[in-house]
Amino acid sequence: ASKQAQLMEVLKKEVRAMLIAAKAGLTPEQLEEQYMAMVCKPLPLRDLGFQSTLELVTQMPEIVRICSSKNGSLILKAIADDSTKGIAKLVANQKVKTRSKASKKTATKANPAFPTKNSKNPQSFQTLNAGTPILPAAVKAELQDLLSSSPLLLVDFEKAFLRRFGQAFQYRQYGFLSMSEVLRSVSDSIVVEQTKAGSLLVLRKYLANKIEQEEVPQGEAEEEEVPQGEAEEEEVPQGEAEEEELPQGEAEEEELPQGEAEEEELPQGEAEEEELPQGEAQEEEMLQGFEQFPPSAEIPPDAVQDRSLCSLPPLKRSCLVGVIVEFVVSPSQFYIHICSTEASYKLQDLMFEMRHVYSHKVASDKYIMPESAVRPGQLCCVMVSRWWYRVIIHRVINDQEVEVFCADYGHLQIVQKSWLRFLKWHYLKLPAQAIPCSLAWVKPVESTWSSAAILLFKHLCRFKELVGIVDEYVDGVLYLFLCDTSTKEDVYFHSVLRDMGYADVCGENIPSQEFEELNPSALYVQPSGKQGNAEGVEPDLRLQQESRDGDSETTTSKLDGAEL
């Protein structure tokens, strides 16, 4: 009984944190989904003796208010207590429509000491101020892959996505209210054309290639489809030339490497059935197909063996930067991506290209890693859920499994040894995209962060572009303030955690206990500039400004004041 009471008290805090973060409230089904997404396990209904989520929340009258919507469905809303009234008010002020003009909002409204909007670069703040949800890079890549062979009618999208990837497209879990919002968020890569049959989804690259094919002689078109800045045909070792000489039937059965014109000529239905297996069962068949070929006796000359990825160039102190939080352990340990169109495209292109190359059984088999190469610190790549990722082996668990660090997303994951492949030298160039971070100037009230504090922080960060204010680097970890500018008042996350009673604002950066215990980036990623063949990518949405002494003092006083 005491264990149930303790579990119920923790659950009440978690439910209140989730509902407070949802301005319009959540249905019981949405609450279940949110809890699963945040805590990675279902609501403990059976452990507490409940048959349904609705039965559970009826036993939380001081936490949850049950309302009816216009269509008759039940909506769950939070009841704020004294410690949460402040954040509830901020959430209530959140804009329903966040696509306001850039001139109405700047990330520095609450703090004039920060760099102000630069009139010479008006576009830089349009993305920084956007409160629109965003799709993760892997999901964007899936959408582009679905449309890469031919356009698709919107009415057929859900069925085609399910057939291709073995699961439904759940846009609500990324914070979108409708499919039209999703399409607007990816308008830079997907165009919606109106036809007699209905809305047609077309990949911009597909349109560009179609125009090129009409304007450029056929013989020249294939040469111009090589990815920008990369002449892959020239860099491929002689042994890999076999990939492009596959018999026609075999080439259609497997995915073609990026840049080959045949990929765009496949009929839509045929491409969906042949290019990718459905679900995990067929994915395993593909892996078994890889293993039917014995590994090559010789390691390919372009296989990375003793090199490391480099990190992105350091950000300047007090600069503003658009960020997306990709992975969260706690407010003291999380990883971000820089909101840069250039960086985003390069990572997506890398994922596409790796998928195309390694999905060839013949090509993939060349890069199977011998047992001697499967060791901690080895940079390689791995297939997870039909996509290939750059990873570093962290530890060997047993004869079948290893734990790897995903350098572009920041998380550790256990994978099968048989899924590992040598990384091609060409894929070493792009710096590791995940930046290890800690929230500046805060420490947990207790010795460690509570589950409710972590849950709230995840909710504040989830699937949205934020403004980061760089404070400093400590032992390779970026300490920064995070601000949500999609509300009437800028919401600083360290202030929210303090107001909720989860954190103390200490005015200095306490070394992250979590990163002190384990910082894979520091172990396996070289600082920027130490990797000779790596190309540094400066984020194109940064507002760079050197901190002057006077500005620095004003900034400190403002951040320490009541405004934040």
Describe the structure.
This protein is α+β, with helices and mostly antiparallel strands and 564 residues long. Among the domains are: 3-93, LOTUS domain-like (Nucleotidyltransferase, domain 5), CATH 3.30.420.610; 151-195, no CATH class; 319-522, OB fold (Dihydrolipoamide Acetyltransferase, E2P). The protein contains 22 helices and 18 strands. The chain has a five-stranded mixed beta barrel. The chain has a five-stranded antiparallel beta sheet with strand order 11-10-9-8-12. Strands 3-5-4 form a three-stranded antiparallel beta sheet. A hairpin with a 2-residue loop joins strand 8 (379-384) and strand 9. 35% of the residues are buried. It comes from Callaeas wilsoni. This is Tudor domain-containing protein 5. Residues 7-80, 131-206 form the HTH OST-type domain.
Give a summary of the structure in a few sentences.
By secondary structure, the chain is an alpha+beta fold. The chain is 35% helix and 18% strand. Among the domains are: 91 residues, Nucleotidyltransferase, domain 5 (2-Layer Sandwich), CATH 3.30.420.610; 45 residues, no CATH class; 204 residues, OB fold (Dihydrolipoamide Acetyltransferase, E2P).
Largest sheet: 5 strands, mixed, barrel
Q: What is the distance, rounded to the nearest whole angstrom, between the alpha carbons of the first and last residues? A: 41 Å
Count of DSSP H/I helices: 22
Q: How much is the radius of gyration in Å?
A: 25 Å
> What strand line-up does the widest sheet have?
6-7-13-16-15
